[in-house]
Design a protein that fits this description.
This protein is α+β, with helices and mostly antiparallel strands and about 325 residues long. The protein has helices spanning about 70-85, 105-120, 130-140, 140-145, 195-205, 205-210, 215-225, 230-250, 260-275, 300-305, 330; strands at about 1-5, 10-15, 20, 25, 30-35, 40-50, 55-60, 60, 90-95, 150-155, 165-170, 175-185, 280, 290-295, 315-320, 325. It folds into two domains: about 1-175 and about 325-330, Ribosomal Protein S5, domain 2 (2-Layer Sandwich), CATH 3.30.230.10; about 175-320, Alpha-Beta Plaits, CATH 3.30.70.890. The protein is built from eleven helices and 16 strands. Pfam families: MDD_C, MVD-like_N.
């Protein structure tokens, strides 16, 4: 009763922000994303009959029982146990090859990999839509990391959440884009995504007007992706990003993820675009800026971003594959 899976994080081009049900992690509105190859989470789940509680090891360190990170994993594993015919405790080992809880969507890749590994180890064989709906229970954005390339998260309308899952739009081979992640600080962010979106939803006067734009933005972004219209996709992505952050900043108290380098990157990307470079930005719930460009423009984009003093690292990603199992012989090698 053991399985290992990997998954990549994704970056929302039409943002996910706000929940209509916190217990089931149901979104207020849909979202649209690109899965990022080159960044990944690998997770091994072993159900054991010789341990008396679940064990969770993250990036080589065992998580403290009762901590929030530990509880999130254990509660998710319990969902899988509830659907299977066993009650063994689990040993979960998960590792990211990029910073954890720093605004780089580690929860998306983490829970997508956990969903696939935990269900496979338990002998459950789920359809992609079922796996996506399960991954959503751990992290709303994880539902999209089940798929490679571009994916749309459907809001759904059912109270039980069975129709709230992601669906593929176009595979990773559809469009040869690059995403350059400009890292602007080290360590975990001060306000988690969950805390930030709940505070925004509860107190920001801009939240509902922004959420009302999402459905139209998804249609516009989907059309741009299918036509490979870079300018059109950039326009809707930046609009969705700035609208989301504006609603967060207007919360009480305001939720501000940006730092001075974040703002400098926004201005520098806009200036580069005026100078003829094909480029646009988006920013998740964190200070790092994700800059998109066609593959042929990568060298020029890296040069522009590398000139900004507050950027500590540039991480290059391309359209990535969906979550997948790792063969046992590869794990043991």
């Amino acid at each position: 009763m053991e399985a290992t899976a990997f998954a990549h994080p994704n970056i929302a081009l039409v943002k996910y922000w706000g929940k209509r049900d916190t217990d089931l992690n149901l979104p207020v509105a849909g979202s649209l994303s690109l899965t990022l190859g080159g960044l990944s989470t690998t997770t091994r789940v072993r159900y054991r009959d010789d341990i008396s509680r679940d064990i969770v090891i993250l990036d080589g360190k065992e998580l403290r029982q009762g901590s929030r990170a530990y509880q999130r994993v254990v509660e998710f594993v319990q969902l899988v146990r509830n659907e299977s015919n066993h009650d063994y405790f689990a040993e979960v080992e998960t590792a990211n090859d990029f910073p954890t809880a720093a605004g780089l969507a580690s929860s998306a890749s983490g829970f997508a990999a956990l969903a696939l590994a935990a269900t496979s180890a338990a002998g459950l064989h789920l359809l992609d839509e079922q796996l996506s709906a399960l991954a959503r229970r751990g992290s709303g954005s994880a539902a999209r990391s089940i798929y490679g390339g571009f994916a749309e998260m459907r809001r759904g309308s059912r109270k039980d959440g069975h129709d709230a899952f992601a669906v593929p739009i176009a595979g990773p081979e559809h469009w040869d884009l690059r995403c350059v992640v400009a890292v602007t600080t080290q360590g975990e962010k001060d306000i988690s995504s969950t805390e930030g979106m709940l505070r925004t939803q509860e107190s920001s006067p801009l939240f509902t007007p922004w959420a009302d734009t999402v459905a139209g933005d998804i249609v516009e972004a989907t059309d741009a992706i299918k036509a490979r219209d870079f300018q059109a996709l950039g326009r809707v992505a930046e609009r969705s990003c700035l609208g989301m952050h504006a609603s967060a900043m207007a919360a009480d108290p305001g939720v501000i993820y940006w730092n001075p380098t974040t703002l400098e990157l926004i201005h520098r990307v806009r200036r580069a675009r005026r100078d003829g470079l094909q480029v646009f930005f988006t920013i998740d719930a964190g200070p790092h800026v994700k800059v998109f460009c066609p593959a042929r423009e990568l060298s020029a984009v890296r040069s522009v971003l590398g000139q900004i003093g507050g950027v500590s690292d540039l991480i290059v990603a391309r359209p990535g594959e969906g979550a997948a199992l790792v063969a046992a012989d590869a794990v043991n090698a």
